[in-house]
Specification:
With 430 residues, the protein is α/β, with parallel strands linked by helices. Helices cover 27% and strands 17% of the residues.
Length: 430
């Protein structure tokens, strides 16, 4: 059974899209961690694909439902694919993040700019009216079925956008006004910026934030893509998080705005030609997936959308489909964290307390390398990201590298004897 989403009253007590009660520092507290923190891409969502992990949110990208694929002619909409994708997501209790770009060929100011998913996709629309009509049509059709709208995908790359940061900010503002009018509870997510190509990141991201500031911040969430280089690790991803947060602080992004990672995987080839794709083994895959979501908790990233649920992809380094180490690690870390309040301390070994002294639940991991850790009092087992568990001795010293959970085994409820008499004063079973 999918875990029920946290109550609205609890969610609104936190910063929009964030997990922390204060800015990221050496020690942080927060929670509860919502299931929406665990995002996924499912390219075949409109064909009825479902995952076997307990994800809470889905990003609709690379699934055949972009602007150019839905509005294939001016004012003529092919809704079937997007209707099916939204219906499938709703049936699984997933919250949908929809990417509003890219430009259809017929609407492109320059149809030679971009080829994916159609010619002209990277162009600025030739008419703002076309953009506004498109956003209005989407928001009015789907309403509360879409949790959040992202303006564009990887707008710092010429593959996806060849306009200016100022033009992207203008598109953002117009979309924001429409979304606020017809679905005021939906979140507006800035165009994403990928960070592995640092020159493209530095050219676009600060300039885009500057233009958004001029327009009085028509967004709720800032978005980046934190793919490291093919030979990179989760520690490199943390460095990207800190860089993005530093640039956000410099741009004076309001504190109410969260930071989301709307695409993440490891081992993807490049960005240099001599850095080929790296395929990661099952144990490493599980550990790095778990560390990704633990780092989000520690450094204040509100959501991370894993790219992607697909059988035997030749693109990514960590496979994510039923039975893979990546999928096991995803489900394991979600079980560790979902619904948890946390008290974390960063260091050579990062430590996050998720329980109390009576029923300890502690996760420890090293961002890189390893370090020593004292097993908490009353903890009797430790489990890794593959959910392989071994006994431990409270108070003993252990070496920590990849994520380890410490606690006590779940105690099963005693069996109920159906013939036993019922106490009429007893509370009803829950």
């Amino acid at each position: 059974m999918r875990r029920t989403l946290m109550a609205t009253a609890l969610a609104t007590a936190l910063a929009v899209g964030g997990l922390l009660t204060s800015a990221p520092a050496q020690a942080v507290t927060g929670g509860p961690i919502d299931d929406l923190a665990f995002g996924m891409h499912v390219p075949q969502i409109s064909q009825g694909e479902t995952t076997t992990v307990n994800d809470g949110a889905i990003r609709l990208w690379d699934s055949g439902v972009t602007w150019g694929q839905v509005e294939q002619k001016n004012g003529k909409y092919w809704w079937n694919g997007l209707d099916a994708a939204i219906a499938n997501a709703n049936a699984q209790n997933l919250r949908s993040l929809y990417v509003l770009g890219s430009t259809p060929k017929w609407a492109a100011k320059n149809a030679k700019q971009g080829t994916y998913p159609n010619k002209g996709a990277a162009s600025m629309p030739k008419s703002m009216k076309d953009w506004k009509s498109w956003v209005t049509a989407i928001v009015k059709r789907y309403g509360a079925s879409i949790d959040a709208y992202q303006i564009w995908n990887e707008a710092n790359l010429t593959t996806f956008w060849q306009g200016t940061p100022k033009q992207m900010a203008q598109l953002t503002k117009e979309a924001y006004k429409i979304i606020r009018k017809y679905d005021p509870s939906a979140k507006v997510v800035a165009a994403s910026t990928t960070m592995r190509l640092q020159s493209a990141y530095k050219k676009f991201f600060p300039a885009y934030l500057k233009e958004l500031k001029k327009l009085k911040w028509p967004i709720d969430v800032v978005s980046v893509h934190l793919y490291p280089a093919a030979n990179g690790t989760p520690a490199d991803r943390v460095a990207f998080i800190k860089q993005a947060q530093k640039d956000m602080k410099k741009a004076k992004v309001p504190a109410r705005m969260g930071l989301w990672d709307t695409e993440i995987n490891y081992g993807i080839a490049g960005p240099q030609k001599n850095n080929p794709r790296r395929v990661l083994d099952s144990g490493t895959s599980a550990a790095w997936v778990a560390q990704t979501y633990l780092d989000d908790m520690l450094y204040g990233v509100g959501r991370a959308y894993w790219y992607y649920w697909y059988n035997n992809s030749s693109l990514v380094g960590i496979q994510m489909y039923s039975g893979t180490g990546g999928a096991v690690g995803y489900e394991t870390v979600r079980n560790w964290l979902s619904g948890a309040f946390f008290d974390c301390q960063a260091g050579a070994v990062n430590v996050c307390n998720l329980g109390d002294n009576v029923t300890p639940k502690v996760v420890a991991w090293a961002s890189s390398g390893s370090g020593t850790f004292t097993v908490p009092a009353n903890a009797t087992i430790t489990c890794n990201a593959l959910n392989q568990c071994t006994p431990v001795i409270p108070g003993s010293q252990v070496t920590i590298g990849t994520p380890q959970w410490f606690g006590t085994p779940a105690v099963p409820a005693p069996p109920v004897d159906p013939a036993a008499p019922v106490d009429p004063a007893a509370p009803p079973a829950s």
